[in-house]
Design a protein that fits this description.
mainly beta; 56% strand; 150 residues; five-stranded mixed sheet; 1 helix; four-stranded antiparallel sheet; rod-shaped; single chain
């Protein structure tokens, strides 16, 4: 007796996470402060007050996973003997991304009121990590840091 089993499967997961604070930076006078395409209010810290507000760093973010599996098994049975041969192939592809609204740090309340940031930073571009070499290449985001008036 000869029995053949063929299996084919696929799975796709795509999820995204947005910041808890979706405030548009233009509504609070911060458009373009930390570079182009600023979509969310940056993290703002006033050191001497211990005050921290704004969006979270590294949001929005998300990932997409795709898995494809193919398998074939051949069973040969003759009398009291059996032989089983087969293979399985799995292809997993992963695409993660994270963006950065940046941060503004004011060492004193006076600097905060005057709008003079002591430190500011933002990763420009989309940070990506891909588990499969067949996927597009990993981008190289750059971090921009500066001090001075905003």
């Amino acid at each position: 007796m000869l029995i053949n089993e063929f299996h084919l499967g696929a799975n796709r997961v795509h999820i995204t996470f947005s910041p808890n604070n979706p405030t548009d930076p233009t509504t609070v006078g911060l458009s373009g402060v930390l570079g182009p395409d600023l979509a969310f209010v940056p993290v703002i810290r006033v050191q001497d007050l211990g005050l921290l507000f704004g969006a979270e760093r590294n949001f929005p973010q998300g990932r997409g996973d795709t898995t494809v599996a193919v398998g074939d098994t051949l069973n040969y049975i003759r009398g009291a003997h059996s032989l089983k041969l087969g293979f399985e192939f799995r292809d997993f592809r992963n695409d993660n991304f994270a963006t950065d609204p940046g941060q503004l740090i004011f060492n004193t309340t006076a600097n905060f009121i005057a709008g003079i940031a002591d430190t500011s930073a933002r990763t420009i571009g989309v940070a990506q990590a891909n588990a499969s070499p067949r996927m597009r290449s990993t981008s190289s985001p750059r971090t921009v840091t500066r001090s001075g008036p905003i």
